[in-house]
Design a protein that fits this description.
There is one protein chain. Helix 2 packs antiparallel against helix 11, helix 3 crosses helix 11 and helix 12 packs parallel to helix 15. This protein starts with 9 loop residues before the first helix and ends with a helix. It has two domains: 140 residues, Aspartate Aminotransferase, domain 1; 257 residues, Type I PLP-dependent aspartate aminotransferase-like (Major domain) (Aspartate Aminotransferase, domain 2). It is built from 15 helices and 17 strands. By secondary structure, the protein is an alpha/beta fold. The protein is globular and about 75 Å long.
Amino acid sequence: MKSVAQKLDIISIRNQFPILHQEVNGKPLVYFDNAATTQKPQAVIDALVKYYSTDNANIHRAAHTLAARSTDMFEDTRKTIQTFINAKEAEECIFTKGVTESINLVAQTWGRKFLQAGDEVIITTMEHHSNIVPWQMICEEKGAILKVIPINEAGELLMDEYDKMLSSKTKMVACVWVSNTLGTINPVKEIIQKAHALGAKVLLDGAQACSHLAVNVQDLDCDFLAVSSHKLYGPTGVGVLYGKRELLDAIPPYQGGGEMIKEVSFEKTTYNEIPYKFEAGTPNIGDIIAFKYALDFVNEIGKENIAIHENTLLKHCVEGLEQINKSTNQQIIQLVGTAKQKVSVQSFVINGMHHFDAGMMLDAKGIAVRTGHHCTQPLMNRLGLDGTIRASFSVYNTLEEVDVFLEAVQRLVLLTAKYTK
């Protein structure tokens, strides 16, 4: 792993990503939709091709060479993610198809076993739909109550309000670590400590956090953490649910089928040990194997180095957007999400221009951003918006790309100003 604060060779890093070297609508691609999904380095692509070219076999179920090789590589990824998040045991890392399935697994197993009528589950205003809907479903089924921590205008949690919500009725706090819409980094360690003081469990949605922040589940003391591969330079269709062993042992399987069993008869089935108890059926073997190479890519560069570069891009972008407002003597650009602690995600709106129109016009310049509600409709309602333009940066992006983006936004602002006078 490279040393902290080492100056990165961004050109060398970019050269590992074949998708970046193309034109879109006759312009060099500027990919600023990293909060939706990050691009994949050649090592990940090669690992996937190699698996299907030379090793393809089902795992854990045969003695032949291809199966043994596939099994070893599959379990190597589990060991790598264990180290990546500092889990106590590799067996505490369950492979899923993504963060959404990881959260649903907890809601439908832990929630079904432990939630009772009148119990309370706490989430936040900035949750992605994948950390809202599963809790709504299980609360409705069990007669539990869903409570929501409010935010201030900057997009920061009102922790005093969280304190007021906590009680002996609180059984689960399900909290996004980093907002995909605002970039806000939530004070999850404090949230966990306060929940644990009252005997509640905590699940963290780590979809955005794990690609930007150092992760140490033992230090955080979270009970569950949901991890996404495709936001960590890995393949789609792969996720990880970390859970403390005692909790994973205590909850029932999520699905029935092969692999998750010890013995099956028509009278009774006994279940396998973790992690296999939660991995019914043939998993996404090739993509899970390739995920290891994405984690290796991040480890080689170093999370600290990635964060320094991404924060530089974010600062340059924010300053540029603010300068556009100054140059027009109008507050046409409204920044959405101005928390003191945030990652390299910046949402904004251009007053007088629909976010979708802005996204289409930026795409015409080869610039890929996300527009819409970003699967956070309740957050949009709180902010009084129907959507935003979201630029999100990764380690392979450059200051020059940010300048191209800012120039394009300035043209949109001038166009809006011309027709709204």
